[in-house]
What does this fold into?
Amino acid sequence: MNRLATALFVLLLITLPVQVSSNDNVNQVLPLDEEVKLINWEKVSEMIPRKAIFTIVDVESGKSFQVQRRAGSRHADIQPLTNKDTKVMKEIYPEWSWKRRAAIAVVDGQMIAASMNGMPHGAGALDNGFNGHFCLHFLNSTTHGSPSPDPAHNLMVLKAAGKIDEYLSKQNPSELVDSLMIAINNTDTTVLRKIVPHEQVDLQALSGIHITNWKVIKNKRSKKNLFLNEVEAKVEIYIEESGTITTVINLPAKRDPLSSRWRVDISALLRIANQS
It folds into this structure.
């Protein structure tokens, strides 16, 4: 993550004028902090008041575009600033989607860990070719319908901050299954590789399913192997062109004796995905 932050620092310092203002006519070039920071939503909300203009960088692709905050009290409702910015966002999301992506908001010369979705919805006020607004989340922000942070957005915020390894390494098998399902639903190869055995990172197969609901119903240490937990989950899976199924799957978790990291065997999920 330090390498990514340094690369972003150099790229942005050379190429991007950073606009941070509630006045659309102000364009101020600011020095950039190379550290990606975790900043609480209440503080970020003060840093980007309504009509503030700032830059978003997509962590995976490195693509950047400018946005304006239009509304939102529990998170930022934002819009691409111009048609050009909408075009860049469309390159990041070839198909508009609710899938979360790790992002960095460049505000007042600071790089702030964030998470965005790519689905136009609700009202929009700018002439930018974008039909509505989309959501940008930060540390401890919430959706409009929940008092708690959205787990999928939270995972992406941590990824943007370079904290994902530390976070996953502290999770028990049951918690790791939650992160696994989020990674699959977001088609996030980077996070998936940190959770499952390397030979099971088959995003092409997994992209055809969406886990709409899940609950771990068993998480028990194996009597035969101290480094194995027997994990079962009840899952509701939407399969493209087939519909929704509800089933119980085995997701055994193995612990690396050297690193103490758990990895989840997703053979059962891959069988379902490959049959779709």
The domain at 164-275 is CATH 3.10.450.100 (Nuclear Transport Factor 2; Chain: A,). The longest strand covers residues 209-221. The first helix runs from residue 2 to 15. The CA atoms of residues 26 and 157 lie 28 Å apart.
